[in-house]
Amino acid sequence: MPNDTQWQLDLRPANIEDGLDIILGGRWCIDASLPSPCVVLDALDDHIHSLRFDAAGLSDWDSGLLTFLGGVLKACAQRNITADTSGLPSGAQRLLAMAMAIPEQKVAGRDKGRRDMFSLVGAATLEFFRDGPQMLRFLGEITQSLLRLLAGRARFRARDLWLEIEEVGPRALPIVSVISFLVGLILAYLGADQLRLVGAQVFIADLVSIGMVREVGALMTGIIIAGRTGAAFAAQLGTMQVNEEMDAYKTLGIPPVDFLVLPRMLALMLMVPLLTLYAGFIGILAGLVVSVTIFNIGAFEYYTETLRALEFKHFLVGLSKGTVYGAMIAFAGCLRGMQCGRSAEAVGRAATSAVVTAILLITIAASIMTIVYYQLGI
Amino acid sequence: MLETTPPIPHIEVRDLSIGYGDFVVQRDLNFVVNQGDIFVIMGGNGCGKTTLMRALVGLQRPLQGSVLYSGEDFWGASEEDRQRLKQRLGVLFQSGALWSSLTLADNVALPIAEYTDLPQARIDEIVAFKLALVGLAGFEDFYPSELSGGMKKRASLARAMALDPDILVIDEPSSGLDPLTAKRLDELIVELRDSLGTTIVVVTHELASILSIGNNSVYLDAETHTMIPTGNPQDALNSGHPKVRHFLKRGAA
Fold first, then answer.
1. Structurally, what CATH architecture does the domain formed by B9-248 represent?
2. What is the residue extent of each domain of chain B?
3. How high is the pLDDT of residue A18?
4. What residues are paired with A10 via a beta bridge?
5. Does the CA dihedral A265-A270-A275-A276 come out positive or negative?
6. Are B201 and B192 in contact (CB under 8 A)?
7. Is the pLDDT reported for residue A1 higher than 50?
8. What is the pLDDT confidence band of residue A170, given thresholds at 50, 70 and 90?
9. CB B92 within 8 A of CB B157
10. Burial class (CB in 10 A: 0-12, 13-18, 19+), B54
11. Angle subtended by helix axes A262-293 and A158-168, to nearest 10
12. CA distance to partner chain A, nearest, from residue B26 (Å)
């Protein structure tokens, strides 16, 4: 006979009528490329009504054998073929009996069917429209909470506010510095290239300073803080949701919005405008460095041109945008955190969604504010 | 013990149905928890124990029916009244649910600071006492993540007891605890009932707890989606409904 390390399968007509003997030999393990149950099923034509297994030649077996036999037995049950498993190793018999004991269950509400494009698009659309009212509801809760704060009845710990301020503000300085410097540098190059055509390179200072202070400083800070802090808020609140910490607040009658959302909201509304101001300053500095070293503009000339270009209203615009972006980031982060489901995966989704929502809201707010300020002539 | 006085109904559940949207988890729940009872809500996994507990403590509105605390309708009450009733409830969640960003002392102190005007020094004293009561004296400045599972459970018990509630609702007290730690927690619960007269509702499937601490109980059946009143679990063990006996004897009998 052949060696023990190879599986063998032999199908023979049985000595009884309508029967088929399945003779298994050698090593039936998962790491050997085992045959599919179809090999047997193809041999089952209409006149076969009983199967018998003979495993006397089997040297070694594991789940590989069981999955093969499971497939054969399942097909037999469907086709009303009796299968005699008494020739199998007793361990295999018991495991097969266990696996077949409880038939596959149809669990209510679990649709495993393939979902076509239309149902996916439909589900996504419904989800989108469900999100709107939820956002409004959360906005309402925050507004109520802010009103309670103004009335002196909102409750959160001052320490939490300071901790958030530290986390959001000073700790974000390095990344804000790097990004603002590079964006200032890009703006300076961009301006230099265009302004050279009309020989007015000194106006780089105007472009960089007004651009950074009014628009880009706030936008870049907003995007950095959305990724850095918005995601963190969603993850923190989401984890609290998973740990039932939110429920613990609710059962004690402490509104989580007062206690958790309010300090985060206030911290961002205070710190993002300050970071915006700082980003503007760093951007102007980058413009200065580029102008002096690359485009041969005098440092003093750049300085006076910047002072001449910058007006108070530009600062106001930048600060107001920073405040609004800060509120948007806190809103998106806390909303997604509070909506979070009860699993690790849900926390990840909440963090991702917080960043996406925050950036979307920031961009929308930026467009609206730019248009309004233009119309107002600010 | 309190058996000498006539029982005073403390919590009444009437025709309660709980579930999610169209999906009814349990229906027609009717039971009364008396003052000073340790009332066990038992049942297998997925029978709706936790959903019922969330309806009792105000986290999830029931589909139908009412919950009465000392005769006062909980879900029919206004938001403020419900808030007032909630303050008389202490809840111990399955995972402990300690606030992870606060120290143990702050966890226990927060509810006290919220609902009383006590000076900080007085609050600190109460916190130290509550933590000592659950055997955690000296752990005031620890964060929940620095504690073992059993310590977390005990700390949450201290927090749930912070406002001296009339009713303590406990979800799976012994989940994730070794048998000895679980037994000590059970003893602590009985001790609290005996000394403070607190009414205690325990939601659990842990046989050892059910049999050792409960003096009244209901069984939530996952198949029929309703309850079977079971009385004292010790009696139910021998003379109860066959399904309940089956459950209490781990499938034997």
1. 3-Layer(aba) Sandwich (3.40)
2. 9-248
3. 78
4. A23
5. positive
6. no
7. no
8. very high
9. yes
10. buried
11. 20
12. 16
